[in-house]
Amino acid sequence: MDFRTVAFVAAEHDEAQEAAERLQAQYRNVPPEEADLIVALGGDGFMLKALHRHMDRQVPIFGMNRGSIGFLMNAYEEEGLIDRLRRAEPIALNPLRMTAHDVAGGTHEALAINEVSLLRETRLAAKLRIEIDGVVRMPEMICDGVLVATPAGSTAYNISAYGPILPLGAHVLALTPISAFRPRQWRGAILPHSVSVTIEVLYPELRPVSAVADDTEVRDVTRVIVREDRSVALTLLFDPEHDLEERIIKEQFLL
């Protein structure tokens, strides 16, 4: 990976902050706004925040795990970091764009790297209608919610809802129900990444639903459109022996 300047950003907890201080003392660095490459120190949640925060510049980000899970992160090592960054292999990700309409007539847009999820707000189950490219595929689903996940996000909330793990480069999205009551046996669908998914909330005032794109939440939605935004390309960097594609394959064999 070619670069001239590096910035270090860290999650707020002590372990990440102390690591940032040591690396900043050891390696020449600049502010994140001026860097050609960013090293993010934390866990997967902080990596998502860093990707969103620097999305406009689309600067490559190399994560090192100073958090808990670290699926999107490389191993933390202080020695030889510049050589690691030069050898790092890029993975390009396209986020999902969520367009959400609410009961007050407002329209909200947000980008999601992992998933867009719709969730019931009260004790009453949500009733949802699902269209794919304008064709109604699910006239009514009674459930806690539904989500649309990218391959990179398929190992996050999607897998907790028993959705499929998607290989990178497969050019597909996962449409996964969350605690579906009717139809009870429906386990979701794998869709081409070029589709537009429209989720209509039936009886939104009686059965309110929120929509979440990563960490952006919109309450009381009536209609949500989700599609891949190929005009935005994010770059994650991985050590050659720990690339994201290999991790996704490994995840499918864990018991």
SSE blueprint:
Elements: E1 6-10, H1 14-26, E2 37-42, H2 44-53, E3 61-65, H3 81-87, E4 89-93, E5 96-102, E6 107-112, E7 115-120, E8 126-132, E9 135-143, E10 145-149, H4 157-160, E11 172-178, E12 189-192, E13 196-202, E14 209-213, E15 216-218, E16 221-228, E17 234-238, H5 244-251
Parallel strand pairs: 1-2, 2-3, 3-17
Antiparallel strand pairs: 4-17, 5-6, 5-16, 7-10, 7-14, 8-9, 8-13, 10-11, 11-12, 13-16, 14-15
Textual characterization of the structure:
- The protein is of the alpha+beta class.
- The protein folds into two domains: 6-93 and 233-251, 3-Layer(aba) Sandwich (Rossmann fold); 96-228, Tumour Suppressor Smad4 (Sandwich), CATH 2.60.200.
- The chain is built from five helices and 17 strands.
- It has helices at 14-26, 44-53, 81-87, 157-160, 244-251, and strands spanning 6-10, 37-42, 61-65, 89-93, 96-102, 107-112, 115-120, 126-132, 135-143, 145-149, 172-178, 189-192, 196-202, 209-213, 216-218, 221-228, 234-238.
- Strands 6-5-16-13-8-9 form a six-stranded antiparallel sheet, with no helix packed on it. A six-stranded antiparallel sheet has the order 12-11-10-7-14-15, with no helix packed on it.
- Helix 2 links the parallel strand 2 and strand 3.
- The protein is elongated and about 60 Å long.
- The model has no long low-confidence stretch (mean pLDDT 94).
